[in-house]
Amino acid sequence: MLSEQAQDAGQHSTAGQRYCIGIVGAGSVGCYLGAHLCQDNALDVKFFGRETMALELAAHGLSVTSFDHHTYFAQPVAFYSSLNSLIECDVVLLTVKATALVPMLTQLKRFLRPEVPVVAMQNGIGIGEMLNQDLANPVLRAIVPFNVVKNRAGQFHRASAGAVVWQQNNHSAVNYVIQAFKQFKLPVQLCADITAAEYGKLLLNLNNALNAISDLPLLQQLLDRKWRLLLAAAMQEWLYICSKAGVKPLAYTPLPNALLPWFLRLPTALFRHAAGSLLAIDEQARSSMSDDIRSHKRTEIMFLNGAVVRMAQLHQITAPVNSLLVEQIKRLESGEAALPIDELLRQAGLKV
Ligand SMILES: NC(=O)c1ccc[n+]([C@@H]2O[C@H](COP(=O)([O-])OP(=O)(O)OC[C@H]3O[C@@H](n4cnc5c(N)ncnc54)[C@H](OP(=O)(O)O)[C@@H]3O)[C@@H](O)[C@H]2O)c1
């Protein structure tokens, strides 16, 4: 029987039905989202991930906190380091990094019932197409606009605002999940044009590579006009490609997307003043790509700046700044140093 709270949440649920939700790739995003769903007694939430995460959650429990002071505890959680129990799931939230998708596909095909919707929550573009090519299941996209960081063992913190942008769909189990998120104070915005949402998020994610190349904390990097000039140029390339593709990218900041490059080029004192609360970032925070480089992991570069280069080729234009950034990340991934900022600006043809 559904709890009273769950009945409110589940506009689309059928009384008596207990949906089983699989969080596949339980890391920062997966644990953060999954802990919200655990608050709904009408959901059976199963976390799938690494043995190390299973041990961490068993020892410390799972809790989430948020910049807007919501705290939830979800313990004990059902955590699986093998994917066999995927067969029970009615919806999958796929929260591995984009680089882990290909090996994950074989597993999904092996264990998932074919009618079960898979919601891909990665940053980057080309994800839905890639999954659709290999998977018989319905594939949906959702874009997470905020940052989630692990504060300490078992505790995941949402560091910024924004609603999860979720592809409109008519899968009742998925819509139940969306209502449950809303019920437990995680905003969700339904979106008919998910391509616009993906393209808009990519515009912001172009800085992930620059942050990794700079090897600086995010705040320090953004307060250096030289790095902002490069970011503005990378954004300009992507906005031009979007216009060629006939896509108007969704704006995730109060400024219209077209003004972002102009805004970034402002002198630092003006930029700092105008950016105001946008710069309310932890002084030590870095992009996840920077973390990946530091942990010697493969980055998501080919789904971000690499996708810009690929799309440019498709439209028979070039994206030299994004190509330069991809090259630098490849160097870092193979243990070499990236070029210094002045040389990057010179190669990009930018004057300070
Ligand atoms: N974190 C954020 O703030 C944020 C915000 C917006 C969007 N995103 C996007 O969300 C996606 C997930 O990011 P995240 O930060 O949550 O990544 P994450 O913390 O690395 O979580 C992914 C987890 O999945 C595990 N995994 C990978 N392959 C697996 C497999 N075959 N079986 C079991 N577990 C597996 C990973 O383990 P290993 O590390 O051992 O492989 C990791 O624990 C990315 O595309 C990212 O761009 C993240």
TrEMBL record:
Residues 21-168 form the Ketopantoate reductase N-terminal domain. Its EC number is 1.1.1.169. Residues 193-333 form the Ketopantoate reductase C-terminal domain. The keyword Nucleus does not apply. GO terms for biological process: pantothenate biosynthetic process. GO terms for cellular component: cytoplasm. GO terms for molecular function: 2-dehydropantoate 2-reductase activity; NADP binding. Pathway: Cofactor biosynthesis; (R)-pantothenate biosynthesis; (R)-pantoate from 3-methyl-2-oxobutanoate: step 2/2. It catalyses: (R)-pantoate + NADP(+) = 2-dehydropantoate + NADPH + H(+). Pfam families: ApbA, ApbA_C. Keywords: NADP, Oxidoreductase, Pantothenate biosynthesis. The keyword Repeat does not apply. It comes from the Bacteria. Belongs to the ketopantoate reductase family. NCBIfam families: apbA_panE. This is 2-dehydropantoate 2-reductase. The lineage of its organism: Bacteria, Pseudomonadati, Pseudomonadota, Gammaproteobacteria, Chromatiales.
